Amino acid sequence: MIRLVVANQKGGVGKTTTAINYASYLAKKERRCLLIDCDCQGAISLLLRLTPKHVLGELVCHRATFSECVFELDEYLHVLCGDQQTVEAQSALWNAGQDKSTMEGFLAPAESCYAATVIDSGPSMEPIQAAALAYAHYVLIPVTMDLMSLHGASSVCETVRLLNKSGDRRIRIAAFLPCQINQRLSITRLAHDGLRRISEAYEAPVLPGIHIDQAVHRGILARKAVIEHEPDARVSRDYMLAFDQLTNLLARYEDD
User: Fold this and answer.
1) Which of 3, 152, 181, 196 allows an S-S link to 10, with CB 3.0 to 4.6 Å?
2) Domain tally for the chain?
């Protein structure tokens, strides 16, 4: 099973939008996917207008079972939602040590049920984010074309390096995904240069970029991933191209 965390230690870079759309992409390919919201803001529930009976925090704190917490969006896409109860779960994870076995314990049922887990992480490196990274095989890093986003991406890469160094884990930076691209801005060119340097330093490729497109917001209003709501929009074509390459990369990494 593919375990992918979508992470950047800066907010507003498109992590949640990317996670929702990649999970939808896998579902369209009839690959059963579990989308997990590790952000205490519960962004996935808000964007998709989901009303789960139980959430991630309850699972971590042993107040609900895995099956009770999973929200079935459709046949191939299920969601494990987050909300403010994730804050309470932080202390439970801290006490458990935030290692790989922490997430593997309460996500064990997912191993036999899904082809992939896609985890949307929050911007700060709190216990649940560290546990998600420790659990994951791969990290996808969305990056907007600004210097703070590049710094957030570098911070994730350094955290991955330290986690790999401190135990028996082998977490891999799968790729960087440039987001919210506007070629008319000079900062975009500067950020591309900085992203190339980070890519070379951590030996992870840069995927084709995602351009700014109002179709994303229309998808949110429709409570759907943009690739599902407006498949012919430029941003949907951008995502499909990037996700095709990402999926091929993950398959290649699995074979290594």
Assistant:
1) 152
2) 1
**Domain carrying residue 98:** 2-255
AA letter at 18:
T
The residues near 147 (Cβ < 8 Å, ≥ 6 apart) are 187, 190, 191, 194
For the question of whether the overall pTM of this predicted structure is more than 0.70, the answer is yes
Q: Is the dihedral of CA 125, 128, 131, 135 positive or negative?
A: negative
Q: What is the pLDDT of residues 137-181, one digit of tens each?
A: 899 999 998 889 999 999 999 999 988 887 766 899 999 999 998
